């Protein structure tokens, strides 16, 4: 081998989500979406968990998604900046309620469809391949209120309808699709991940896994429809990844780490291998959870597996079998012990570039399907000068080390990797905290946590650094 080059045609780019960047939350006949009722501040987490019911917006809260960074009105300018960096690929998501405002409408909303036509056309004009997430933490609120969102089997039909419309409409513009963003997130943030709200005293785990089954069926149906409409389509699944390390070499700790990883692999095992793994069947049995399946479900899953595996990677995790050891960090929504060998970001996420290489190898060993890193990055507080320029060497350092690890996985280990789209290539609203100050982008957006600012875009130091990385296909990491 000896080479340390990435393949020609490697898809360099960046990633966003409609609910965190579009804004214009009721413009163009868009309906209300789950994210539109999730406030910033202390109530965000209880609402995101499905423990606090908030089905409408009120005057007491601030809702960051309503304007976000207003990509809806700035998409031409933003895509031109991505093109200036040399993006080969732009990962974005569709707002379901922009296409079907209530989710169950008889006809799709033409204004919403035209908006995405315009976005894709703008990408293609600049030679940028769209990578589209069909559902990224996004359910029309009407479906939450009327049928309980993904706890209902009816959701499969509504999702199927959405897929038929978008696959037919954009079949000549979009080749790469992801069915659900971080599908395993519904176990951790059920309202954000799947629009689930729990009633007092019900078996929450049973509700979550039944909803998961409905999403897995919907994903298989999407894959089937996609390949029928355009055999050139490539359909992927998407996992919030990051290996769980054992706290010590005690076999109990090692076993605990395997169990933790399986919680997340379960979804991808089904989407990639086409059946419920035996460990998941046993786990559901032990918890007395009976998944209601319909005739033909197992066959559908088996015959419609995904073409590639995509994932987000921010950090690794650490677990112990000892209940006394509980020095957990606040890193994201995945509880983890503090790893003494790693530094952490300002939000407690542990920085582990080698963990990315480990994750790539584990996923490739497990599935033998092409992989795609569709989120990776460092959330940090940026201090711009008067022109909006940010000296973000900390972000460059984080990305440089992760790209090196990614290249090692490809060149030293033989992992098949399609591309790399760092998260929040332009500053956007944080999904977990609702903040603007937790920034990831190469492009600074003038807006603060309270919603004040001009929305002016400006290039950070990392913008010019990443441009050089793409230009040299990852050879010049500066």
Automatic annotation (TrEMBL):
<dbReference type="InterPro" id="IPR017853">
    <property type="entry name" value="GH"/>
</dbReference>
<dbReference type="InterPro" id="IPR033132">
    <property type="entry name" value="GH_1_N_CS"/>
</dbReference>
<comment type="similarity">
    <text>Belongs to the glycosyl hydrolase 1 family.</text>
</comment>
<keyword id="KW-0326">Glycosidase</keyword>
<dbReference type="GO" id="GO:0016052">
    <property type="term" value="P:carbohydrate catabolic process"/>
</dbReference>
<dbReference type="GO" id="GO:0008422">
    <property type="term" value="F:beta-glucosidase activity"/>
</dbReference>
<feature type="active site" description="Nucleophile">
    <location>
        <position position="375"/>
    </location>
</feature>
<dbReference type="GO" id="GO:0005829">
    <property type="term" value="C:cytosol"/>
</dbReference>
<keyword id="KW-0378">Hydrolase</keyword>
<protein>
    <submittedName>
        <fullName>Glycoside hydrolase family 1</fullName>
    </submittedName>
</protein>
<dbReference type="InterPro" id="IPR018120">
    <property type="entry name" value="Glyco_hydro_1_AS"/>
</dbReference>
<dbReference type="InterPro" id="IPR001360">
    <property type="entry name" value="Glyco_hydro_1"/>
</dbReference>
<dbReference type="Pfam" id="PF00232">
    <property type="entry name" value="Glyco_hydro_1"/>
</dbReference>
